[in-house]
Specification:
heterodimer, A: mainly alpha, ABC transporter involved in vitamin B12 uptake, BtuC, 12 helices, 72% helix, globular, B: mainly alpha, 15 helices
Amino acid sequence: METAFAFIAQVLRISVPYGLGAVGGAFSERGGVVNIALEGIFICGAFGAVWGTLATGNPWAGVFTGVLSGMLLAALHALVTVRGKADQILSGLALNLLAVGATRSLLKVMYGSASNSPRIDGLPGLPISLPAGFEAIGELLGSPFFLLAIAAVIAGQVLLFGTGFGLALRAAGDGPRALDGAGYSVGNFRVLGVLLSGFYGGLAGAWLAMEQHNFTDGMSSGRGYIALAAMIVGKWRPAAAAAACLLFGAAETLQIRIHSDKLPSQFLQMIPYLVTLIVLAGWIGRAQPPKALGDPYDREAAE
Amino acid sequence: MSDREITNLRLQAFALSTLQTVGPVAASIALGLGLAGLLVALLGASPTQFFTTLWAGTLGSTYGFSQVLFKATPLIFTGLAVALAFQARLFNIGAEGQMVIGGLAMAWAGASFPGLPFPLGVIEALAFGALAGGLWGAIPGLLKARTGAHEVIVTIMLNFVALALANYLLANHLALPETVRSAEVTAGATLPRFSDFWSALRGSPLNLALLLGVAAAILLELWSNRTPVGFSLRVLGEGPKQARYAGLPLARLTVFAMTASGALAALAGSNFILGYKHYYEEGFSAGAGFQGIAVALLARNRPIWIVPSAIFFGLLSYGGLVVNSIVPRELIDLLEAVILLFFIVFDRMLRTLPDRLLLLRARAPETP
């Protein structure tokens, strides 16, 4: 029983960045903008969080700078794809390279190493005492960042499906012409959608940094892409996507916890990526992306 | 319309298309280098020294230029791989993984048949590498054709799987005892170095893989412009609707494009494995698979332009090592990404330029 709770707590903990990323991806893609740059946003968020923590000594300031860094990269993506109307996948790929190149350069310039930053303490938890056997759960519930992440996911679901803003944002991705006809700016809503994905992605990156207690080159290791896969499985709905992330969190937890002499470690490393592949291949036909996803909106174009 | 007006229109069209093809490349490189100069100055180093050192170490000397070409060689192959898939509008972000799997197979094959003389040994090693890389590349093609799973996420996931798989195979089956590398390929499977014939290049790792890459670019250019399959791929690139309308076998073409792309990416390993170190080790690809995306983009997926594009990115790669004493070489990674980003934006701007000019003209009030 005790190990079961510890396992659940670990799955939840590992699922947090996936969940935040998937919600962020939903905001961008519901608005009609493919956001492969999510991986780069994670990386920027993680670096920003470490930098802010080291610069101020306050981890919450680090969370704030992490979110800002994620939003900065997202703003570039919005500028290139919404204002510049360039290809969204290409922009995302270029921005991921930019994130890797920029953080590598900054690591070297600021901390004298191209591979890792100095250590940070991470966020202190609130003491919550639960009966023996439930310590892992208590530790999680006592983590303000964890509660913040849960709240952010719920807020994302409400914002996208329970408010006029969410309706308009979804229209920007599903029927931009109708939104335009109703007198709203498609471009503005799309920019907001991408910026929100930067907020969530930056938060996810900050979580990774706080958990790992430093920044290492390329530390996101594909988690941004896996979050996008979870978003597809969750049919572009924040709550469902976050729930789907538990699957990917469980896969990564298994990878960490399985100790076997028979199974080589390299095969364990493959687990999260293989699970993503299998799930994507099995699911995708049943998921309908927003209708105008990937198309720059051009009001002059013929219908 | 008079002859003169027609000539005039032709000239305008030519000027516009030249501007559209050359403009974004020139502008993005110029802006990227300008930004690099600015960053160098911000870091407290001298931009003049940065650029003169960069020039002297790369294009300014025979040895430096041979190093640039050495760095460019795998980029020609991975650039061709990405371009081939992209002609069919498929994003192959998996060239890195295909290069790793193909490279491992190439190293194994090159070391396993000692009886084969040159160049049969080389051909055999290349064939095994291409086969393995092609099979690995076929996976995202099949998944896309069968289930619609987007090739971007699939190829990226497969990169991680490929690396883990290669590490496993190397550690447990292929590595020489007490080492982290595979056995050396046989003499018959070795590509000669240029320095064997030209003493000015002594110490330079530049080898015949470069010529293989150039040959592949020329062949692919001819193939894509002059054969039915090459043409079909480009129709597929126009969109699935167009391809279906033309009666093309969509699924088969998709799988074919990704397989061929994976095979090409695998051949990139020949530079290191058959021409330079003669064995496989982790990290031998040095990110060439990802750089291939940038190479293909700047070449606009035209096989023949891949060669100069690869040389440019090879110059940046080697240039990073050259200027490392002035500024951190990681800055070059940043520079590459910036150039790519500028290019994407300028390319889109110039492509829509004629439409926007027409709109402006249509909106302009009539002059009395």
